Amino acid sequence: MSEPLADLRVAVLGVGLMGSYHAQALATRVKGVTVTVINDFFEPKAQEVAAAIPGARVVTDPIEAINAEDVDAVVIATPGKAHEDQVRACLQRGIPVLCEKPLTTDIASAYQLVQDELATGRTLIQVGFMRRFDAEYVQLRELIASGGLGNPLIVHCTHRNPDVPPHFDSEMMIRDSVVHEVDAVRFLLDEEITAVSVLKPTPTSSAPAGFHDPMIVILETESGRIATDEIFVRTGVAYEVRTEVVGEKGTATIGLDQNLIRTGTDGRWGGQISPGFVQRFDGAYHTELQRWADAARRGTVDGPGAWDGYAAVAVCEAGAEAVRTGQRVEVAMAKRS
């Protein structure tokens, strides 16, 4: 009988909202993991998070944290501009990394990381597209793949947030929010997105001057399918994410559970909506982390990889240009090796 695998020793870089969530989840909910190192550019926050995790310590330099002797794998939740150097340091050390989106902040550096990973001969990069681990998205993908809807023709997405910081402009809506629909469409349809257009309806009065909120993003795929995404990040209501696939033999919609309609004898009707993305996708995050940790203990990863991160960056760059120009923009992507 083979020896049981030792616990995976993990460093978490960046402990804002997402990183602190990951650190706590890895320490308390994910099996086979010990969080040994916490890093953040704001050291008091790192100290606060580490103090709540038995055995964790703070390392102030992120590259030093990656190279620590008691670190077997890394979770990166730092700002996007730091990802390139930190992911590359993981590759150079030969350890698995789960990097929150974006993989990097530009197409060239994202593609270079794809090439750098290929040069190692191993699969070490996983990108944090958690919807791929959500039970509803998995079920919908399986339904499509089995032919249950016939040929899928159109995908309709809705992505609404109750509020965002004042600086969250129209391009950030593409790069930080629509990016999830970009990956979801690629995941569901199993093909690349080739062009992006953006329509700008009358903006909500909650949007700062010059910001376009809501927007309708139109994604074209290589086979000619169309996906639409209503992105509205200042609804003042709650967090709503829905996806409908229209096929030749039927339709299927996910995300309706958070809008369960109820009726009562007093004539009222209504339901509940998730207050935020963490609550909506808590189960998906847990599954993502557990599967990543299980794979990382074997020296690899289990989920969307470097190419998926690169593709998302390329599509979002086209989307940001479409916001700026008002034109349909083709996605500039290399051919997959």
From TrEMBL:
Signal peptide: none annotated. Residues 8-127 form the Gfo/Idh/MocA-like oxidoreductase N-terminal domain. It catalyses: myo-inositol + NAD(+) = scyllo-inosose + NADH + H(+). GO terms for biological process: inositol catabolic process. Residues 141-331 form the Gfo/Idh/MocA-like oxidoreductase C-terminal domain. Belongs to the Gfo/Idh/MocA family. Homotetramer. This is Inositol 2-dehydrogenase. It comes from Nakamurella flavida. The gene is iolG.
